[in-house]
Write a structure and sequence with these properties.
Elements (H helix, E strand, L loop, with lengths): L2 H36 L2 E2 L11 E2 L4 H16 L8 H24 L3 H18 L12 H24 L6 H20 L3 H17 L12 H20 L8 H5 L1 H16 L12 H7 L4 H24 L6 H32 L7
Antiparallel strand pairs: 1-2
Helix pairs in contact: 1-2, 1-7, 2-3, 2-7, 2-8, 3-4, 3-8, 4-5, 5-8, 5-10, 6-7, 6-8, 6-12, 10-13, 11-13, 12-13
Length: 364
Amino acid sequence: MGADLASRAWLEGGAAALVACAVSAMLTWLAIHYAHRRALIDHPGQRRSHTMPTPRGGGIGLVVASVAATLLLRLVGSPVAMPLALAAGLLAAVALVAAVGWIDDHRGLAARWRFAAHGIAAAIVLGAGHTGPLLHVAAAAWLAVATAAVLWLAIAWSINLHNFMDGINGLLATQAIFVFVALAGLFHQAGTVPGAVAACAVFAAATVGFLPFNFPHARIFMGDVGSGVLGLLVALVVLWQLAVPGIAPASGLVLCSAFVTDASCTLLSRMLRGRRWYSAHREHLYQWLVRCGFTHAQVVALYMGWNLLLALPVVYWMNRMPEMDSSLGIGAAIATYALAGALWWLGKRACLRAVRGRGLHATA
């Protein structure tokens, strides 16, 4: 990319991010008034971690802002605009996930319909080519099919796990911003994917526009319309990263380790105990911490502490030398998840003891 083209890319990418942030903030503010008029209010309850009635559905602002900024880059013919096929697939998948989330925020939607929509959205992403060369490296047809199945499951799981992790003020938004910004830095370092840098910047900026309305004190909750789409976008940028040769393959997985561990361990725990894993509950570690007396801001700080003090340094180490054996990076990712799992287990046990010691109910 020439100097003039690079300057234009930075200018237009930055402008799109500013537009995304401004549109997100404006629409989130409007969503508060809309939610009050339509009585879209989450009330405190046994399976909730807030104490005040709070409107929901504010994530529509970051969804529309992300879509609008992506389309804007296409309309102006920016050098960092997403290719047409990828943009069409992204917008179709986002629209589907946002639509079922919007319906669920308004009147509830059966889990089977939500999961069906998420599966279709994941298939759209795969069909649009967002996996890059990942499906073309398989030496046999069966391996390509198996790889596609794993990627499909990962995308659908990301949509749902981010929804599960959206239970306290600011946690999902700060996590998403962290992943988008960190991967944007890796894409920039790789030097071959300026469009991915711009997309990550747009997604991060749209989430930043929402954050002041949700953290440290929530004037509105993101709702399923926002949490599902953020889960989809996080899955997308991690898939893009997997397809870039200059970035350690496990980087995205390490950056997402806090959320993936909490959601996955909680899901497995509920399944092993015969619980309805898809029903509302308060058994995630972040929810137990709140029940033990931590404020929402303190819990967010703990998760960001993991991200900044462990996940980010591990990713930096994995990418500091291009010639590093990929097996070392994969080993580092496995060790990261092993440590995260151990901390999840220890934290859960400590929370259970604390709750029982205070004479409170330990069930969800």
